[in-house]
Amino acid sequence: MSVVIPMYNEEEVLPALVSRLRPVLAELGVPYEVVAVDDGSTDRTAELLAAFRLGWPQLRVIGLRRNSGHQAALTAGLDRALGAYVVSLDADLQDPPEKIPDMLALARGEGLDIVYGIRADRASDTGFKRWTAGLYYRLVRRLAGPSVPAQAGDFRLLSRAAVDALKSLPDQQRVYRLLVPWLGFPSGRVTYERAPRPAGRSKYPLGRMIRLAVDSVTGFSAAPLRIATWLGGFSFLVCLGLMVYTLSAHALDHTVAGWTSLFTGVLFIGAVQLICVGLLGEYVGRIYTAVQNRPTYFVGHDTAVSPHSEALADTADTADTADTADTPATHESSLRG
């Protein structure tokens, strides 16, 4: 099993994460690795990971060269994880690692490729957080379909087949809480109560939440473009009404009285045009990003990679274009054995 954990400036919560996660994985009775992806942290996260790794050989640290974002860091971990099952987990401990054995048992017992962690209780979140989260899930379920589970974040278990399917997708700006349900693999659910953050600050402020919502909508639906079309049609009808009103006012010699309606109509049409241009800009921006085809992350180092394994990777010609080196075949065989 692989447990992928994206991290950005998590020095305060890291000791608590290790103290809770390590015994849970040790009791599973299966070979495992913990893939900690340091997303360009500026605090002591990298230093603490190096210290913990001295006494925890299953801890594997991947350091990205720059801060690439949560979903990109998660992509880096999924791309290089070696387990037959891969669990993605945030470092803030709001999603309990103690649920990992339940996820694995459900996947094995029912032959599932995906097991979602569902937040049954978000009482620890603020009222605004709960309201915006509920609004987000209602929106994406309406646009992307009911296959998207409500209140499911990035805490999930994936089989090797599901991970390989995700790796084969060409998407640049990935939102896994929509991509994973889109695969259509057999899935199950494990519910839990969302706990408060034991330390540190949230890495998803309002700005990033809005960006995630925009990426979710524009990445999985053309509905905003159709909204622009409907707005254009509605504005056309309004303009027809204003034209009739203007001609009537002119016939009755009340031209001055029409200034308010004309001014309002110009403002309305201008606002609709700006909205439509903005929506088109979002899609053009995604096309521009896809055409550039730049890697979403660059790996600076991977503690599982040794000079010997790099030579093996070069000989096999399997180097990943987005990384500086591939994962070693020797490490993979030892984990899967």
TrEMBL record:
Full protein name: Glucosyl transferase
Biased composition (Low complexity): 316-330
Cellular localisation: Cell membrane
Transmembrane feature ranges: 227-247, 259-280
GO molecular function: glycosyltransferase activity
Residue ranges, annotated region (Disordered): 316-337
Any Pfam family matching the protein: Glycos_transf_2
Segments forming domain Glycosyltransferase 2-like: 2-165
Membrane topology summary: Multi-pass membrane protein
Protein family membership: Belongs to the glycosyltransferase 2 family. GtrB subfamily.
SUPFAM superfamilies, per database record: Nucleotide-diphospho-sugar transferases (SSF53448)
Keywords carried by this UniProt record: Cell membrane, Glycosyltransferase, Membrane, Transferase, Transmembrane, Transmembrane helix
GO cellular component, one term: plasma membrane
